[in-house]
Specification:
CATH topology of the largest domain: Cytidine Deaminase, domain 2
Number of strands: 10
Order of helices and strands: HHEHHEEHEHEEHHEEHEHE
Distance between the termini: 35 Å
Strand order of the largest sheet: 1-3-2-4-5-6
Largest sheet: 6 strands, mixed
CATH architecture of the largest domain: 3-Layer(aba) Sandwich
Number of helices: 10
Radius of gyration: 18 Å
Bound molecules: tetrahydrodeoxyuridine, zinc ion
CATH class of the largest domain: Alpha Beta
């Protein structure tokens, strides 16, 4: 772990905002969440927004495009969650995580029950609009693209294809918890199983989560967020990797990875994950079946 990414991000903020964030964090290390008291001023002082988006963009990992997207979402609790894009050198473009997906995933993993605002430094692409369509109450979401007027999300995606089209009544953030248990049990595995039970797979039933353990024994768990249009789904590995970098870790810091998954469904992603983990850091993937 190193703090240089966070310190470089702090340097993009005004001295006041940087101080407010470090004071609010106290002894806690940064995990991608900006406390409500620190972010609230952007609602009345929009001039502070570019700095916060630059702050988020400092977490981008873009070896392919060098195009750094910074995003912020405001959760129902009032806290903000940063997002940044992530690309994988030498891999397929389809493995990439977009800044907006990263911010929403961050809010979801921090236990938010929904989001009310999205701020981003570039217009959300079609893939992101479709990803966002999956959240609970998309019509209540306001989008602020840097330099443009606020716009309702539904105006960005009229005539949409949504969860209803496949007969799904649930939504991301309001997904019912599953009640699977792991074939193996331990405090570590139980934590990953808990996240698998909070994953979102209404179209395939392939509920799963991935735990990444760092060489200094930190655990980062990512959850699968499925999408009605399939391709914009956020894989659990991307969810975990996107989150881990906010805490100052990198792929090379991972020593072990564990997939807890509901097998015998219409799809299975274990081989897909294993291939990326092997190529990125010669990692294996331990499997835990859910029943
Ligand atoms: N990108 C985003 O993160 N969000 C968008 O909506 C536009 C595109 C990223 C994806 C890729 O990492 C880079 O920008 C170039 O497309
Ligand atoms: Zn996008």
């Amino acid at each position: 772990m190193n703090n240089s990414r966070f310190n470089q991000a702090l340097a993009t903020l005004s001295p006041n905002d940087a101080q407010a964030l470090t004071n609010a964090l106290g002894n806690q290390s940064f995990s991608g969440q900006i406390p409500a008291s620190v972010i609230a001023p952007i609602q009345t002082q929009p001039e502070a927004l570019p700095q916060w988006l630059n702050f988020a963009a400092k977490f981008a990992i873009t070896p392919v495009s060098n195009f750094n997207v910074g995003a912020l979402v405001i959760g129902h609790s009032g806290a903000a969650y940063i997002g940044a894009n992530m690309e994988f050198a030498g891999q397929a473009l389809s493995q990439s995580v977009h800044g907006e997906q990263s911010a929403i995933n961050n809010a979801w993993l921090h236990g938010e029950t929904g989001i009310s605002q999205l701020f981003v430094n570039a217009s959300p692409c079609g893939h992101c609009r479709q990803f966002i369509r999956e959240i609970a109450q998309p019509h209540q979401l306001q989008v602020y693209v840097l330099g443009k007027d606020q716009i309702a999300f539904t105006k960005l995606l009229p005539d949409s294809f949504g969860p209803d089209d496949l007969g799904n009544k649930f939504a991301l953030f309001e997904q019912p918890l599953q009640t699977f248990t792991g074939a193996i049990q331990s405090p570590l595995i139980d934590e990953i199983v808990k996240h698998a039970n909070a994953s979102y797979a209404p179209y395939t039933g392939y509920y799963h989560a991935i735990g990444l353990i760092t060489s200094d024994e930190r655990l980062f768990v990512g959850r699968y967020a499925e999408n009605v249009a399939y391709n914009p789904s956020l894989p659990a590995l991307q969810s975990a990797l996107s989150q881990l970098r906010f805490s100052g870790y990198d792929i090379i810091d991972i020593k072990r990875s564990i997939l807890a998954h509901k097998t015998e469904q219409k799809i299975n992603m274990a081989e897909h994950y294993l291939s990326l983990l092997k190529q990125l850091n010669s990692l294996n993937l331990d499997l835990v079946k859910l029943t």
